[in-house]
Amino acid sequence: MSGTPLELVCPAGTPGALRAAVDAGADVVYLGFRDETNARNFPGLNFSRPELRDGLAYAHERGCRIYVAVNTFAAAGNPDPWHRAVDDAAELGADALILADIGLLDYARRRHPETRRHLSVQASASNPTAIAYYHEAFGVQRVVLPRVLTVTEIARLNAQIPVETEVFAFGGMCVMAEGRCVLSAYATGRSPNMNGVCSPASHVRYEQLGGRMVSRLGRFTINQFPDGEPAGYPTLCKGRFVAGGCAGYLFEEPTSLDASTVLPELMAAGVRALKIEGRQRGRAYIAEVVAAFRRAVDAAARGDPVPPLGLGGMTEGLRETTGAYAKTWR
Amino acid sequence: MVPAAKLTLGPVLYNWPAEVKRDFYFRIADEAAVDVVYLGEVVCSKRSSFFEPYVPEVSERLARAGKEVVHSTLALIMNEREMEAVRALTAAPDLRVEANDISGAALLAGRPHVIGPFVNVYNEGTLEVLVRGGADRVVLPCELPAGSLEVLGRAAGNAELEIQVFGRLPLALSARCYHARAHDLHKDGCRYVCEEDPDGMALETLEGDGFLAVNGTQTLSHSLCCLLRELEALRDLGIGCFRLWPQSVDMVAVAGIFRGVLDGRDDAAEAEARLGELADIAPFSNGFYHGREGADLVAGGTFSPVG
Q: Chain A, 73-92: which have a CB under 8 Å from a chain B CB?
């Protein structure tokens, strides 16, 4: 089967990564401002207003678009940083806003009706009625689907909704429904929804104990590694825990999502765009992953077999999964 | 004048056998000092059919006892069957419904309804939109600190605000069933192993510390949230409804303890000690209210970590 290429939506956490993504063939680069208004609020990452202005110029000159994620939930009593993020992105000429908070969607619709609004994965809109609500109430034109649906469910969903869908194709993978997980806040007091962080480095400790390295998040042990085994980052849901007397990766092994093998199926399911996760990643990573997906997306559009991406060295834990796209994952 | 505080009983989140659940609700109807009772399967649609035959007699008995009965929807709706269940619930004109996904709120628009704690209401902008849509009570997410509750309390207008004051904290939802996974099963052939754990399956760290509890596709805290000592402050912030999540402890007695403090009859610290003896399945936590790690227990201005 051939068809219109999937739109390739690529991450950037720095101006250098933005240029790398554009040069490697991204159709769109998505990014956030340097504060708690976006869901990758990491130290040293993200864009100032002048950096966004320059990034927009660089991208637009090369036929590439920029989406700005303002996808955390505005703090009660202090909506200004979120309102300013929406205002500035719209006024600087961003091609779309990626939003999750109902109050903020309402604000963006009223203040900037001409700027496209996309629904962030953080809104966890997983069914046609929810998506129709966001479309009718706030004029949302695209939904980033939660990583909970199978390809079959995505196809059924697309047949019932009046908006475009975008799905995650590659990178770190939440095993929980996005926007509906406060595990990080339980252990650290800092959450994706309120602070734009999950399992933040500020709360991570590694401790050498006997013959093993112990990784902790807050005061909770997330994993232990015998000497010689590389100690992974203690993302809470990728930890090793004990249930019923057995220790193991109860939620998920430290794997990465790789949906490249199901690109033709995603096209047939009516998906419009593919999203690559990783605004925290460096320039070299972005360049390589984006270039590989450019080849894959173009091959799928021609109806050719999708070539192997050759990204094995790039994935977390050096393992890949198609995640929720296959029903057996559940 | 501040209206009287309401004590509410959230829906049973765990897979209790249907007859156990029926008898639990009969006893709640006859003996518990709660004003509102929420019924329905929130976590896993595979469990929904078990209790459905008992819903009419249970809701009738609760209503006869003077309780407001609210029917809760599923929280994560991923397929047509689950969507149909929400449509059926919201289509019944006389039922009072709690929407735990925005789809439920959309279907209930224009008539009074409750927004459940699995819909993200973090700020006054979102609260206003949902109240405009007909919500007359909003159950807030468990991670909100006192400062946010205060702002929302001022912005709520005539709508009631509800927060959890007792029980394990509902921390996450997933498409994947961790109960099945822990038993080397898939969700489709899960054998309903979640029924073995009436308060969820304990999940400990490799060092043996209690950390989380798994309830099928849901993950909860190991600790029991307890906001007995914060009740008075919560009332001052404009919170009018206080939710107890059912655990496999004497919930009639739990309700009695909270009622005594809410009515000003009992001292909160002394009541907390009694609650600790009654609900001894896990230590208490109150960190989210105090703007800290949810697992923390802040006691009288001092801070003491729980295991």
A: 73-77, 79
